[in-house]
């Protein structure tokens, strides 16, 4: 077999490798690793180990910091004004429950396989290298784009807090196209400063996050108390314009669920905590508490914030773009200063969400480097700081470069769809891992179930979003719900679980991950058409990179013994407690 250098040592070697692409794809694209390999051989490729310094309270703080950014100050008003009205409180509760179900899927994987790869590693041990690479590529793209957007949002909110217009510290370059012509140096400074912090140490990053998160929560509590103090209970049921729908549910059940779909994006961030599993002192205890606890606390905060906002103003008077600060900006009795306080709180929230997201993106890139589908240089962990310095610095500089000139709205249109796609993949991977022991059980019943359930969920989503109101729509939605329930029950009764989690597992299998699958498909259906065009473009670009580089680097690494696996070999790993008694089909 060829050595690693044979594919990339020269043009002739590379062209010979390209000619063998079909056979290499057949060998590597569906190759899977085991959780034992991810925790030992794969992790060893980073050289130095990441230190286990995080406790459950660190994870709770990081989870809260990652989720509660500035977005909640905007999304709450938009969802209430356009979809749910005062019942936005219920929308947040439903979205929080959905986030908790998805967080359970991440938690089971992270406890069983406490490595830094997060969703990339989870998909790699179930669906293989190509699916994992596609998942990882979308994750990295989403993280970089969203972090650049968040950094530019920081300067906007900070300017609002101190009373300085953003235009005064952004330089306009007239020769560049609109959306790319405003240079934001302060956004670059924020990104580079956080990059230095996360390179210095994970424990130190957690301490910084904890301080900022506590200050941010104090601002949120202040906003909640101000809303309940200055607000009026009648605003829960009476709109300002009597011609608009009234009551706590002015737009009915559809409004509540459409609102939940919109505000669900406020919960994105807990997935970054799973990438820190390799640095957790006691994964079995700390990860379930940290991930689930942070989602529960954030849900309570969001519901209280939504109730506070609904009391401040009737839903038809809420400023969709700045609901909280807008409620006080027009006050003439000395309360305008509250708007500045809200801007300062949002600025702190941006910093915490940026710090946690940059921690996560570096660890994703580190583990992708360990798998040899990108240069192994990204996998190196610094022996003194015990952090993936190469991945952190590279992505930090890349993020800063994008944040320097790209407009916030351009960036926001590029995110969300990839993240929801990854959540969908993780939920599917959990079902597959529970019901399929590779090499000993037939995977087709499980794959058929996942495909049929996803198709039913897609049909429900299309009916919900595009079919006009009437009996026909109600019949179609009811029929889809009955069919989906029957599919789950039939699978539950006919296909036994191939493995049971040793330490912590998602209860009520396969119902909980199936609810997560459905909800992610439903939320994907609420995104606009251009989002799908961009998703297809970036996914196609990722496929091109895999075909032209990654599959050959992975193939060469296997030939050098970095993977140590032969196609068709069946092995039993008695040394791994979590995999004991299961056979794995090595490809």
From TrEMBL:
Listed InterPro entries: AA/rel_permease1 (IPR002293), CAT_C (IPR029485)
Protein's UniProt keywords contain Membrane: yes
Keywords on record: Membrane, Transmembrane, Transmembrane helix
GO molecular function: amino acid transmembrane transporter activity
Transmembrane segments: 56-76, 88-109, 121-141, 153-171, 183-200, 207-229, 249-270, 291-315, 335-360, 387-405, 411-432, 444-467, 473-491, 503-525, 531-549
Family matches, as Gene3D superfamilies: Amino acid/polyamine transporter I
Recorded topology in the membrane: Multi-pass membrane protein
Main location: membrane
Subcellular compartments: Membrane
Family of this protein: Belongs to the amino acid-polyamine-organocation (APC) superfamily. Cationic amino acid transporter (CAT) (TC 2.A.3.3) family.
GO CC annotations, alphabetized: plasma membrane
Residues of the Cationic amino acid transporter C-terminal domain: 504-554
Keyword field contains Cytoplasm: no
Identification of the protein by name: Cationic amino acid transporter C-terminal domain-containing protein
